[in-house]
């Protein structure tokens, strides 16, 4: 295992090399016809040791869609590319309109529930309302069990954490999580993590919003809490940057586009377990998946990238 110190001090290193002994026994299924090439990197969930692919899929807006023929084809392609490349983590919420229904319907039609590692959230107040909402989510996702249930934006957090502890004991969920959409809530998230009993924390982290980098990610690593990174592409806020050429050195870490560079920047922090960029566009899915293979930037390249972004 690479320590945080050796990670930051070293030159460009290859996660594939570092984890080779592990990867030899945990190769992820791959379809050479449709994957972007290479084996997706995986990271372990500290509380269980279970390995998950580092590129997940968000569903906010992207899957809140009327399933017209075109939309259905695109979203089915997105999911097919994702699974074929070794992706599995899909994050949703009852807050995202039709997203849970869309995911459930497409997975059912694709007979792909066994390939999905489903995460959703509870986003209401009150114990009974929370239970009803979570039951509805399982129905919408057409899944008898889901991997991870998270308290969305810490809404009525203590109430729902009580329920989730029972659900975990009963085997209805495997992991308990908490989330927030803003870095200003990291203090509040950290207070919950320090109390224990939480497997996952989800929060924003991007090259433009690096508040988590200095203290929150190291805290998660110390406490053994897995991290899901939301808003890794600033909700589409880098569109102008994406129209400019990538720096020449991007090729040194196998990147041909800005999204690949920006996602690899985040993955280079060893306390990051999985990024969940959202997309409904198969070309963007292909692009994002390429960030999950090959070399990651070292401290020097990360600094150069920060300087490029300005
Ligand atoms: N409080 C919470 O729990 C919370 C808060 C925020 C987010 N989340 C979760 O985190 C996920 C990710 O966050 P987000 O959706 O807000 O923002 P995001 O993933 O940073 O950005 C999504 C946007 O980026 C675009 N995009 C994706 N890949 C691209 C690529 N390769 N090239 C160009 N554009 C690309 C997408 O458009 P296209 O569809 O056109 O690709 C979409 O507009 C959410 O979907 C949700 O599951 C949770």
Briefly say what this structure is:
The protein has 310 residues and is of the alpha/beta class. The protein contains 14 helices and twelve strands. The site of NADP nicotinamide-adenine-dinucleotide phosphate has 29 residues, from helix 13.
Q: Layout of helices and strands, plus pairs?
A:
Elements lengths: L3 H6 L3 E2 H4 L1 H6 L16 E3 L6 E3 L3 E2 L10 H16 L4 E3 L7 H12 L6 E6 L4 H14 L5 E6 L5 H13 L3 E7 L6 H10 L4 E5 L6 H4 L1 H8 L2 E5 L8 H4 L15 H10 L6 E2 L6 H9 L4 E2 L2 H11 L1
Parallel strand pairs: 4-5, 5-6, 6-7, 7-8, 8-9, 9-10, 10-11
Antiparallel strand pairs: 1-12, 2-3
The parts where pLDDT drops under 50 for at least 5 residues are: 1-36
| End-to-end CA span | 33 Å
Give me the strand/helix succession. HEHHEEEHEHEHEHEHEHHEHHEHEH
- Hetero groups: NADP nicotinamide-adenine-dinucleotide phosphate
The overall average pLDDT, rounded, is 90
Query: What is the beta-strand fraction?
Result: 5-15%
- How many whole angstroms does the radius of gyration measure? 18 Å
Largest sheet: 8 strands, parallel
Classification by helices and strands: alpha/beta
| Subunit arrangement of the protein | single chain
CATH top level is Alpha Beta
Tally of DSSP helical segments: 14
3D structure, described in words:
The protein is of the alpha/beta class and 310 residues long. The chain has one domain (52-245, 271-295): TIM Barrel, CATH 3.20.20.100. 41% of the residues lie in helices and 15% in strands. It has helices spanning 4-9, 15-18, 20-25, 69-84, 99-110, 127-140, 157-169, 186-195, 211-214, 216-223, 239-242, 258-267, 282-290, 299-309; strands at 13-14, 42-44, 51-53, 57-58, 89-91, 117-122, 146-151, 173-179, 200-204, 226-230, 274-275, 295-296. The strands form three sheets. Strands 4-5-6-7-8-9-10-11 form an eight-stranded parallel sheet. It has a two-stranded antiparallel ribbon with strand order 1-12. Strands 2-3 form a two-stranded antiparallel ribbon. A hairpin with a 6-residue loop joins strand 2 (42-44) and strand 3 (51-53). Helix 4 (69-84) packs parallel to helix 13 and helix 8 runs parallel beside helix 10. The chain is globular. Residues 1-36 have low confidence and may be disordered. The structure holds NADP nicotinamide-adenine-dinucleotide phosphate. Residues 58-60, 62, 91, 152-153, 179-181, 202, 230-236, 242, 259, 276-281, 284, 287-288 line the site of NADP nicotinamide-adenine-dinucleotide phosphate.
């Amino acid at each position: 295992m690479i320590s945080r110190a050796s990670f930051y001090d070293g030159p460009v290193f290859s996660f594939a090399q570092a984890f080779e002994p592990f990867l030899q026994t945990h190769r992820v299924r791959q379809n050479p016809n449709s994957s972007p090439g290479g084996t997706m990197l995986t990271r372990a969930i500290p509380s269980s040791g279970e390995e998950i692919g580092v590129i997940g899929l968000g569903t906010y807006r992207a899957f809140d869609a009327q399933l017209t023929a075109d939309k259905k084809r695109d979203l089915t392609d997105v999911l097919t590319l994702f699974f074929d490349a070794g992706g599995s983590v899909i994050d949703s919420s009852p807050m995202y309109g039709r997203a849970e229904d869309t995911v459930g319907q497409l997975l059912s039609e694709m007979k792909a529930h066994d390939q999905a590692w489903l995460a959703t959230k509870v986003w209401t107040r009150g114990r009974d309302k929370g239970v009803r909402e979570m039951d509805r989510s399982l129905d919408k996702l057409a899944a008898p069990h889901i991997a991870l249930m998270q308290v969305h934006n810490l809404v009525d957090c203590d109430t729902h954490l009580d329920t989730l502890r029972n659900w975990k004991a009963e085997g209805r969920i495997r992991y308990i999580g908490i989330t927030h959409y803003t870095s200003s809530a990291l203090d509040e998230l950290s207070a919950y993590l320090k109390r224990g009993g939480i497997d996952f924390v989800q929060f924003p982290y991007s090259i433009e919003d690096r508040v988590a980098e200095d203290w929150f990610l190291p805290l998660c690593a110390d406490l053994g809490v897995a991290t899901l990174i939301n808003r890794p592409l600033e909700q589409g806020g880098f569109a102008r940057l994406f129209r400019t050429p990538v720096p020449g050195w991007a090729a040194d870490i196998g990147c041909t586009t800005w999204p690949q560079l920006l996602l690899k920047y985040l993955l280079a922090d060893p306390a990051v377990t999985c990024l969940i960029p959202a997309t409904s566009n198969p070309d963007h899915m292909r692009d994002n998946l390429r960030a999950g293979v090959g070399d990651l930037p070292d401290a020097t390249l990360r600094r150069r990238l920060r300087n490029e972004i300005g």
